[in-house]
């Protein structure tokens, strides 16, 4: 159920092939969620500016049912900003990450909501 989406002006040719797997492993560990539910979506080649320039930048979104909020967001911000800077060369002052804690009844999978899945329905 965790979803990480990154929109960036970094070209697709500069996105490392192992980035999806690395982010999946990183977030599964940090969120304590099964990899089978993680969705990573990198959207390269966007027409974007940050602080008035078109140097590498991005906007990211991390949503999950639980495991997000308060002090946990500080930990998640640190590991995600570090990984994105390392792999995509986006400086940490040219990226926003939005954290959203979904209610279990607001996210569907396999024709059910996670509220139903968690209840065994």
Structure explained in plain terms:
The protein is elongated. The strands form two sheets. A four-stranded mixed β-sheet has the order 2-1-3-4, covered by helices on one side. The protein has a two-stranded antiparallel ribbon with strand order 5-6. Helix 1 runs antiparallel to helix 2. The protein is built from three helices and six strands, in the order βαββαβββα. The chain is α/β, with parallel strands linked by helices and 121 residues long. The protein has helices at residues 19-31, 71-88, 114-119, and strands at residues 3-8, 39-43, 58-64, 95-101, 108-109, 112-113. Helix content is 31%, strand content 24%.
Euclidean distance between termini CA atoms: 17 Å
Low-confidence stretches: none
Average pLDDT for all residues:
96
Kindly state the number of beta strands: 6
Instruction: Encode the helix/strand succession as letters.
Output: EHEEHEEEH
User: How many helical stretches?
Assistant: 3
């Amino acid at each position: 159920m965790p979803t990480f989406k990154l929109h960036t002006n970094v070209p697709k040719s500069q996105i490392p092939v192992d980035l999806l797997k690395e982010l999946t492993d990183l977030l599964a560990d940090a969120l304590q969620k099964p990899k089978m539910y993680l969705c990573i979506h990198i959207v390269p080649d966007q027409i974007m500016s940050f602080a008035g320039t078109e140097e590498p930048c991005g906007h990211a979104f991390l949503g999950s049912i639980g495991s997000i909020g308060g002090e946990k967001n500080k930990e998640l911000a640190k590991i995600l900003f570090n990984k994105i800077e390392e792999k995509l060369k986006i400086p940490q002052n040219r990226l926003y990450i939005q954290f959203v804690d979904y209610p279990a009844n607001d996210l569907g999978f396999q024709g059910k909501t996670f509220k139903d899945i968690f209840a065994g329905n």
